Amino acid sequence: MNLRRDDPILNMSGVRFQWPGRTSFALNVPAFCLQRGETVLLLGESGSGKSTLLSLICGTLQTGTGTIAVSGTDLAALSGAGRDRLRAEQIGVIFQQFNLLPFATVSDNILLPLRFAPNRRSRTKMPFEEATRLCRSLGLPDDLLGQRAASLSVGQQQRVAVARALIGQPPLMIADEPTSSLDAGSQNAFLDLMFGQLGEIGASLLMVSHDPRLGDRFDRVVELSDIAMIEGRAA
Ligand SMILES: Nc1ncnc2c1ncn2[C@@H]1O[C@H](COP(=O)(O)OP(=O)(O)OP(=O)(O)O)[C@@H](O)[C@H]1O
C-alpha cells in the first residue's frame, strides 16, 4: 500500500497483546496514531507495557488481534522477513542498551541498517561521508569512526545509536528511554542534537521516558494509560 502524505506514519487500532503463557498482563490499544513529522513522548508506570508497545510497533512482537500499520502497511500482512525489511526501511530504533556491535567500528555500526534497507541505502549517496556528517552533527569527533564501539563512553555510544537510527532518513524513530544513563546536562545536550537532526529529515518520533519534564520538547505527551487498557501489572 502507498502512503498518502496526510496518512499517519503509525496507525494502531483494536490491538490486543498478551505474553504467551502469561495471563496476568494484557495490553489493549483501541486506537493510536502518530502523524508524519510528529514527536510524541510516551510516559507510564514501570511494568505498564511501554516497551511491549514499542516492540509491537517495530514488529519484533506480534499481536494476534487488531491492526498496526507502519507507513500504510499492516504488519500482520507480512512474513517475519517482511516485517524485518519494513522495520529496516521505515524505522530508526534506539534502545536503552543501544545494541551496538561491540567489536565493530563506529562507522560499521552506523552503516549497518543500510545493508538491510535498499531504499535507505539509495537515499545515502555517500554512506561513509554521511556517517561522518551525522557523527559531527551529534558532537562526536571524526577519529571515533574507526574505533570499536566497545571502547566508547556511554554518552558516545548513545550518539552512535542515534546516528545509526537516522542514517538513510527513515520516516519513523522509536526510542526507548535513550537518555536513561545520562546526567541532566548531558541529557539536554543529547536531546538538542537528536531533535535538531530529526527536524532536518522531518521524521516522526515516539519516545518512551520516565521523565515528564522532557514533555515541553515534544508535540504531544501521552500517558500509556490514556491510550491503552492495561490488564494486570508486573509481579
Ligand atoms: N519477555 C517477556 N515475557 C513475558 N512477560 C514479559 C516479557 N517482557 C516483559 N514482560 C511483562 O510485560 C509487562 C510490561 O513490561 P514492559 O517492559 O513492556 O513495561 P514498561 O512499561 O516498559 O516497564 P519499564 O518502564 O519498567 O521499562 C510486565 O508485566 C512484564 O513483566
UniProtKB/TrEMBL annotation:
<dbReference type="InterPro" id="IPR027417">
    <property type="entry name" value="P-loop_NTPase"/>
</dbReference>
<dbReference type="GO" id="GO:0005886">
    <property type="term" value="C:plasma membrane"/>
</dbReference>
<dbReference type="InterPro" id="IPR015854">
    <property type="entry name" value="ABC_transpr_LolD-like"/>
</dbReference>
<dbReference type="InterPro" id="IPR003439">
    <property type="entry name" value="ABC_transporter-like_ATP-bd"/>
</dbReference>
<dbReference type="Pfam" id="PF00005">
    <property type="entry name" value="ABC_tran"/>
</dbReference>
<keyword id="KW-0813">Transport</keyword>
<dbReference type="GO" id="GO:0005524">
    <property type="term" value="F:ATP binding"/>
</dbReference>
<dbReference type="InterPro" id="IPR017911">
    <property type="entry name" value="MacB-like_ATP-bd"/>
</dbReference>
<keyword id="KW-0067">ATP-binding</keyword>
<dbReference type="GO" id="GO:0022857">
    <property type="term" value="F:transmembrane transporter activity"/>
</dbReference>
<dbReference type="InterPro" id="IPR025662">
    <property type="entry name" value="Sigma_54_int_dom_ATP-bd_1"/>
</dbReference>
<keyword id="KW-0547">Nucleotide-binding</keyword>
<feature type="domain" description="ABC transporter">
    <location>
        <begin position="10"/>
        <end position="235"/>
    </location>
</feature>
<dbReference type="GO" id="GO:0016887">
    <property type="term" value="F:ATP hydrolysis activity"/>
</dbReference>
<dbReference type="InterPro" id="IPR003593">
    <property type="entry name" value="AAA+_ATPase"/>
</dbReference>
<dbReference type="InterPro" id="IPR017871">
    <property type="entry name" value="ABC_transporter-like_CS"/>
</dbReference>
<protein>
    <submittedName>
        <fullName>Methionine ABC transporter ATP-binding protein</fullName>
    </submittedName>
</protein>
